[in-house]
Amino acid sequence: MEQKNNSVTSAETNDDSSNVDDVTTSAPIMPNLMLGDVFSMFVSKDYLRPAMCKPFVQNGKVYATDATMVIFIDEKDCDFEVKNEYQEKAPNVEAIVPIPNTSKIIYVQQSDFDKFKTEDELEYTGEEINCETCNGEGVVEWEFEHYTKDFDCPKCDGTGYKEEKQQRKTGNKIFGVCRVKVGETYFDMKRFYKLIQVQKVIGGDIELIYSEKPNTIHSFKIGKCTILIMPCPIDDENDCDGVLNIA
To answer: Picking from 40-44, 76-80, 90-94, 119-123, which range would have the lowest pLDDT averaged per residue?
Structure first.
C-alpha cells in the first residue's frame, strides 16, 4: 500500500504577506469582536455540565473551558460581565494551570491551516417528528395466539420518525482528522486553530509558555489571555488526514 505524505511544516506554506489573514501581527485583525466573543469559543456545549457552559470566576481570574481547552485572564483585565448561575459547581481549573517554564513565539498563520480544510461542512434542516404508528420506537409488535414478535415498523421503516432532519452541504470546508505537531506533541487541529482565532480578535503573538513532556498539557499566551490545550496523541501520522509541524 502506498504511504501518504501528509505532514507539512508551516515554512512550506504560502508566505504571501499581502493577505491580511496571513500576517502575524500585534494588532487585532477583527477589532469589532470583543473578549466575550473569544471566551464563548471555549465554553462547553454539554448542558449536563451547566457550570462549564458559561465563563466563571475563580480566585481573581475569569475562566472558560470545555474540558479539552482552558482560557483565562485576570478579572481586572476582563471587559465583559461574568454571569454564571452555576458558578459554585465550576471545576477547580486553577489546580491544573502550570507554572510557565519557557518562552517561545510560535510563528503560524491562517494560510498554514487552509490546505487542511478538506471536509464538507454539513448542517441540518427540518425537524424530527416521531412516527405515530410505533410511537417513535421504530418497532411494532406482531401477536399470534400467545406468541409475540417485534418487527421494524412498516410505516417508518424502523427509523422511529415520521419526518427526519436532513443533512445538506453549506459550501464551506472544515478540518478532517488532522493534527498540529509542536515539538513531539500532537494536538487536534480544530482546537489548536482557536489560537489563530483568538489572535485575530485581540492581537499579539502566540507564545508558548509551558511545555514539559511530550503529549502533556501545553500553555500558550496571547495578549493578556492564557490558553491551555490538552494533547491528542496518535500512533502513526498516516492515520491522519494531515499533520502540520509548526515548532
So the answer is: 119-123
pTM to 2 decimals? 0.75
Phi/psi for 168 (5° steps) reads -145, 150
In a domain, 222, yes or no: yes
**Do residue 73 and residue 153 come from a single domain?**
no
Residues 210 and 101 in one domain: yes
- Cβ neighbors of 18 (< 8 A, separation 6 or more) are none
Assess if residue 240 is contained within a domain. yes
pLDDT tens digits, 29-54: 555 568 999 999 999 999 899 999 99
Same domain? 181 vs 109: yes
DSSP the chain: -PPP--EEEGGGS---TTSGGG---SS-S-TTS-HHHHHHTTS---TTSGGGSS-EEETTEEEEE-SSEEEEEEGGG--S----TTGGG---GGGGPPPP---EE----HHHHHTTEEEEEEEEES--EE-TTTTTSSEEEEEETTEEEEEE-TTTTTS-EEE--EEEEEEEEEE-SEEEEETTEEEEHHHHHHHHHHHHHH----EEEE--STTS-EEEEETTEEEEE-----S-GGGSSEEEE--
Can you give the residue range of the structural domain that contains 203? 7-117+174-245
Q: Same domain for 104 and 26?
A: yes
14 and 111: one domain? yes
CATH of residue 36's domain is 3.70.10
